[in-house]
Amino acid sequence: MQDVFDIADDLGPAKVLHIHVPDAGLKAILVVDNVAAGPSIGGVRMAPDVSLTECARLARAMTLKNAMAGLPHGGGKSVIFADSRMPEVEKQRLIRAFATAIGSELQYIAGPDMGTNEQCMAWVHDEIGRSVGLPRELGGIPLDQLGATGWGLAHAVKAALPFCDLDLAGARVAVQGFGSVGYHAARFLAAQGAVIVAASDSRGTIHRPEGLDLGALSRLKTEGKSVAECRDGEAGGPGDIIDIECDIWIPAARPDVVTEQNADRLQTRLVAEGANIPLTTGAEEVLHERGVLVLPDFVANAGGVICAAMEYHGATQTAAFDAIAEKLTHNTTQVLEAATNEQIPPRIAAVKIAKERVRKAMATRRWGGMV
Ligand code: NAD
Q1: Is 295 found in the same domain as 179?
Q2: What is the position in ligand 1's atom list of the atom closest to the CA of 302?
Q3: Which of 120, 185, 217, 235 could form a disulfide with 153 if both were Cys (CB 3.0 to 4.6 A apart)?
Q4: For residue 129, what is the domain's CATH number?
Q5: Would residue 352 show up in a list of annotated catalytic residues for this protein?
Q6: Which CATH number does the domain housing residue 204 bear?
């Protein structure tokens, strides 16, 4: 296994914990990257094959996302090495064992991630009283159901419009991944006059230049069908969404869907990254050269973690959504102004701003808040 000091820098990680509880069949890693701004918040991923390096990279991504969002929290991440499709009773046992093992790690607040959900967070909460993304009955704000990330994304898009000479009224939007993030982003943008011309899921794409019926697409998804089964529009394969001519392209599905090899196919003015790392660094460079504005993931998709942090501090749903709107508008504008002034890609500007915030927080803390 790679030595964590090989990947450490001046920001972190502050702590790496390897957890092994043979009786519970638990093997897990916790990476607390940086806690200068406050206890770290980050998801618990359940997957059989995540390396320590990957976990550390994900924890760093949370440090930058939380700093960018102006939250009083640093970044962390944990991985439980297991197949998340195990029977529920086994999953509960494993999650409870994990929660007990991190009980004294007060600098880490667990949230849901791939392979875990609000039920898992309820078990963590029951064991140690410290988790976010809880069911409503425990004071949670159901962020996926309400569309917290899509709400934030819609505000990031609105703030970006002046930087790419676009007007939301009549702007053509294509959404890759009609799930929680994609559907709600489409819904909020359509409510303000944008026209959703295409949507896709893992099974296909549906395209209708005059605008899609989002209610009909949502019903298809509830019935377990693909958006491509919608009768009102032209259906295609999942990859076809990349070729749709539009003004705003929203990747809200998986990592690395646009690479240097296919970035040329995108015909859009603005890309708003809803998914985490949907574009490779090379693809972002190609698009920047072409004058396409790309809103980086950790700026544009922070709605979910802002909602989670607000939940942790006891805020209401309304307060959480107001905070998301305010923060995403302000941060997107700040990043794009810096990128324009310094003539650098938005991601470089955003990383610079986020790291500056972390370093300023570190300067206020004994030992830089690293222990
Ligand atoms: P989800 O499971 O609700 O939806 C994902 C959608 O993507 C599904 O409709 C699925 O069919 C589709 N999809 C999968 N592979 C595809 C492909 N190859 N082409 C087109 N569509 C494909 O997930 P979600 O919660 O909406 O999250 C989407 C992405 O955003 C993930 O990468 C997630 O990590 C990231 N993200 C989510 C949140 C959040 O609040 N949920 C916050 C930040 C980032």
Answers
A1: yes
A2: 43
A3: 185
A4: 3.40.50.10860
A5: no
A6: 3.40.50.720
